[in-house]
Amino acid sequence: MPASRERIGGALQLLGDQWVLLILQQAFAGERRFSGWRDRLSISEAVLAARLRLLVDAGVLSRVPYRDEHRTREEYRLTEAGLALWQVLVAIWAWEVAWVPGRTEQLPALVHTVCGQSCRPLLGCAACGTRDVRARETTLLRAPGRSLADASPPRRFRRSGWEAVADRPELFFPETMAILGDRWASALMAAAFLGVRRFRDLERELGIGPSMLSARLGELVERGVLDRVELPDSQAVEYRLTGKGREFFPVVSLIVDWGQRFLPAAPSTLSIAHPACGQPFVPCLTCEACGGVLHRREVRFAPILAPSQ
């Protein structure tokens, strides 16, 4: 399990790492062996070994022995917890395609094999069957006596070595990593969904120093996920989610849900309610084309077609 003692912090600590996401991406594509990940990702053996240990410790991958021509070796297979992360990866893909310029041409289309259509996945509520749920239609709740500082994961790995995939847009997700890969940026996004908007409130909620807070807010404003709003007839300033920021909610909600389900030994700071049905929000992905719930074995990514000469 990740070192964080809090469920959401543990989930963010695990998934807020570019190499972890790439290893998972390739695992869903069928990769199981150390040498395969090393060669596909051009990742150093030391970095790969560290990430695989983390994923095994978190219960996302399991080691399974196999026999080759010379000796018994180990391969890595997705567990139930690992298989459940397919929705997070698809939600990241969908956000990048919709909100990062140029990604539509760089990334493959998602096909729902049930209806045969390319689709944009919509966030739905599995508890009541609503197929298109917006962030504003849910309520992010903080557990009594807890603050977002509890859910802010410590940095585990240095963010380095990504140059190996920086020129492969189907693998590299810099916009997503600017949010998930930074402990304060991810905490600020959670605070924004909670409705915490003012500098002093954010400083108190997160337990973050003013210079660090100012820097992270500036970065999120520059990336277009937060908007700096000067209130009329007041010297106060608020930081509000933009459309791009609000549409990151499927990723956030699916990570919260995964942490709740698969890191049960740790306490939880955040939960999400769906007032329309009066139940805890149970996120799922639905097909924009036919309205059906998307299941892991019923979606595939179409090959990227080379431009015509």
Strand order of the largest sheet: 4-3-12
Mean pLDDT: 90
Largest sheet: 3 strands, antiparallel
What's the total helix number? Answer: 13
CATH architectural label = Orthogonal Bundle
**Total E-strand runs:** 12
* Rg value: 20 Å
Task: List the secondary-structure elements in sequence, H or E.
Answer: HHHHEEHHHEEEEHHHHEEHHEEEE
Q: Which fold name is given in CATH as the topology?
A: Arc Repressor Mutant, subunit A
Q: Looking at this structure, what is the CATH superfamily?
A: Winged helix-like DNA-binding domain superfamily/Winged helix DNA-binding domain
Domains, number: 1
Secondary-structure content class = alpha+beta
**Which CATH class applies here?**
Mainly Alpha
Question: How is this structure best described in words?
Answer:
It is a single chain. By secondary structure, the chain is α+β, with helices and mostly antiparallel strands. The chain has one domain (7-301): Winged helix-like DNA-binding domain superfamily/Winged helix DNA-binding domain (Arc Repressor Mutant, subunit A). It is 39% helix and 17% strand. It has 13 helices and twelve strands. A three-stranded antiparallel β-sheet has the order 4-3-12, with no helix packed on it. Helix 6 (86-99) packs antiparallel against helix 13 (249-262). The N and C termini lie far apart (50 Å). The model has no long low-confidence stretch (mean pLDDT 90).
